[in-house]
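Annotators were shown the component list below and the corresponding predicted structure, then asked to write short factual statements about the assembly.
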Amino acid sequence: MGPFEEHLRDAIRINRERRPRYSALTSGKSLFISDILIRSEQLSIPFAILTDLCSIPFRKRGIRVVELEFISMDKIPAFSEKLPFQAPSMSEFTPSRPGLMVLNFSLSALKGGWGEASRKLKSELHRLEATPGLHLMLKHILESMLRISMLAPVHQRKCKEQRLWISTTPISVYLYISHLLAIPFASWLDWKTAPLLAEGVPILYQDVPAIPEADDEYK
Amino acid sequence: MLKHTGLTLTVLASFFALVAHAEPSADRSKYHLFNPTPKELMRGLNTDRPDKTESAYSVDAGHFQIETDLLVLSRDSAEGSTVENLGVMVSNLKLGLTDSIDFQAVVAPYVSTSEGTNRISGFGDTTLRLKVNLFGNNSGDVAFALMPFIILPTNSGGTGHKFYEGGLIAPLSVSLPGDWDMGTMFQYNRMKNGSDDNFHDEYVTSITFGHDIIGDLSGYVEFWNSISSESSSEWTATADFGLTYRITPVIQLDAGVNVGVTDSADDLNPFLGFSALY
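Structure shown to annotators:
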């Protein structure tokens, strides 16, 4: 099993385990969210397998594309019944504008490459820090895009060092685009989850791993 | 394996480079609606159907293309009731205005909806679209277009409402080695609410992969999904499968089925259609 597929299968397992526990906390109101999470992860598996297959020739040569992009689900917090900070108020929740975001992150990547994409993503993530208990799936997607855009030139350099006649860039581009297309879904899911978070239920908050920015992970 | 994957990746690698450089189209810029592209210079039949991901390629200047659902059905069962929709000759009529812009009118001469013994039918809405190819129409492996559209409430027989709707579609088409094609699309819709006279936003994204099967027969698989800002909205997603058959270089038959993979999507949506370029 490849790294992307493994990441998704772990996520499905964890969401299945936690589904009845959240349901008990919310009198069933969370089932809708848990089911959507599991379904979206299941539907992503064929694309994950395809991505993993494309990365095999590189990973065999020690270029850890796809592998480094996805953070192990072991890093998620243990299940807790309450948010570890004061629950956000629904009045703090402003629906994000996914259309503008997709446009912004597309143009920044097209015009300024990975560097500009990273800068824009950092800026948006900084803006989202103002609402720590909200926009959690959007943050997850943007953090992942930031990691992809920061790792892309590192993998690329590794290919050059090994004098490979092919590059990891297309895989990085594909991962970036597929995350870009997930922004509307993530924004929508955050909107649907916000009422539960406002009640202090830590759904999503403790179900996705924090994704660190990438440095030179080969060092 | 490495060689094959490498070829795929090498072609994909050109993506960023291609998008930064518009192709030279000076030779074709002289062609327009009243000065059609000569047959020997035509790009040929390239359709938006049968998948739901739109193509980034426009119809040749001065030429006409028709893409029709001869018959399209959908069936959705939920909570003991079943809703069935039928469309006949739902057609996208396209006209090449310039080398990179075409005008499209999607008309639905007959649509019907039935639930139990209740049935309504009539003329459907009409969608007017403009496809503006920004690059990749004539060369390269990547093409991108923008498609603004407006939906005119031309329906009759109670098959719809009387409000104007619209949006913008951004399709990206990529030719992969080994005759694989990839298409992806981002779409924004401004639509009327189901429950009142206000409007909401909808966002659609999709990705499709197509490949020749044998001779003139090709197939595709697609993932399509939509979310909405309407308060009662659910996530709608389908897995789509279909076949196309080229009878001649300018006439194509197609058939397929879209399968709902979320509760709010239609359970099944089979269709049969054809496309022709003149």
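Statements collected:
1. Chain B has one domain: 2-277.
2. Chain B is about 5% helix and 55% strand.
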